[in-house]
Design goal:
The chain is an alpha+beta fold. It folds into 2 domains: about 30 residues; about 60 residues, no CATH class. Helices cover about 20% and strands about 25% of the residues. The protein contains 2 helices and 4 strands, in the order ααββββ. Strand 3 and strand 4 form a beta hairpin.
Length: about 120
Amino acid sequence: MKQPSPPTSLPKYLAEGLPKQDTETLHEIQNYVEALIEYRNQSVDIDELPETAELVDEPDNTEKGTVVKEKVTCGDDSCKCASGNPGDMHGPYLYRYYRENGTMTSEYVGKPESE
């Protein structure tokens, strides 16, 4: 059997270094990679969310992350909000929090329908 070729996306230092490892070390690397993937794919824990975040049932929280309702601080001097004062709160708005490559990320979803 011929040694398998590494994926072209694999960095050169790994493509050259992995074949030099003994079988026991390769199993340890495999276990580490599986644990790392599991960690990166885990959902955001409630205690990691901002204190001002309020969980919502909609939209679907199972899609990609956890959807919360939040008010945000106005920081734009050109804001045309009711008060016109930077530092005032706006919203609430919906944000989805999820992990991307192990880092918690959020994205704007929209305004809640009931607001």
